[in-house]
Each structure stands twice: as structure tokens, then as C-alpha cells.
Amino acid sequence: MLRRDNLILKKLPLSSFTETPLHISVLAGHLDFTRALLRHDPGMAMEVDASNCTPLHLASAAGHCEIVGALLGGVGSDACLVRDVDGRIPLHLATMRGRSDVVRELVGARPESVLVKLDDGETVLHLCVKCGHLEALKVLVEMMDVIESIFRSGDGDGNTILHSAAMFKQVQVLILSKYNQIGTI
């Protein structure tokens, strides 16, 4: 298609579609096509759809780790901090879905993204506990051993992750806490 019409990707903003071909490629999990699109137009990685999601949001939620790597390599880590209409960044979505490999990739690319809170004050650690994703929590704990303040950070109601763990009956989190891997209340 690009050989027949070299400007086909440039004409898309004039259409009524909010998703770019990159959004669709990422959702379908097509790594090679994603790479080809990024080579042709790297800026497409920062385009948002109607939900203000970049392709990185979609790849992160779907757990397409290689595609996440390609997107981060294509435009850098700026997309890591873009919020969707619900105020979530790609790391929040990966955490909510328990995509541990993607969590590792995103935090490696943009470590400060772990400090981005949702509108209700929840951190990525709160999301791990709330959604029951202990593996993602372990990855975050391994990667952020120097950011102790986030462990004591409360959500909008003042609950730390240990408060949340108790409320959601996440015994594994409480056990990890006992061995000082997750701070104190």
C-alpha cells in the first residue's frame, strides 16, 4: 500500500477514524507490521485514539512485551507518561492485568512512572494488590528498592498497600511485608 500511495499514512488524520494503523497492528499483536509502521512514521507511536490511548497503552494492557519494546525503541519513553481518559498510564494498565514482563520493560524505560498516581491516589502498588497480581508486585519491589516513599504512600482514603492487602485479603502481600520486602504500615 505504501508503494502505491506513499502518503496514505499522512492522510489518516483527515479520516473519521481515531485509531491509527499502529493502534490496530498493536492490538492484533503484529510485531513485524508494527516495526514496519514505526520505521515509516515513528511519530505515530504518540498518536492517541478516542480514549486518549497511545499504542503503548494497548500493547501494555494486552501483554505484548516485544511490541512494547519496539514502541519504546521507536520513540523513546515519552509515551510512558501519557494518561488515557481515565488518568491511567501504560504502567497502570500492565499492572492491572498482571503483565509482569511488560511492567519490567516500562519501569526500565521510565523509572519515575511508578510514582504516577491515579486520580484517587492509588499507586501501581495499590493496583497490584487490588487486582491480585503478586508477580507484578514482586517485579516492582525488585526494581524500586530505592523508592521507599511509595510503599508508605496512601491512596485518596489514606490506605497504604498494606491496608489494601488486608482489606482485599491478600495474605501473600502481608507475608512479604513481614519479611521487610514491602515496608510497614
Automatic annotation (TrEMBL):
ANK repeats lie at residues 86-107, 120-142. GO terms for cellular component: plasma membrane. InterPro entries: Ankyrin_rpt, Ankyrin_rpt-contain_sf. Keywords: ANK repeat, Repeat. This is Uncharacterized protein.
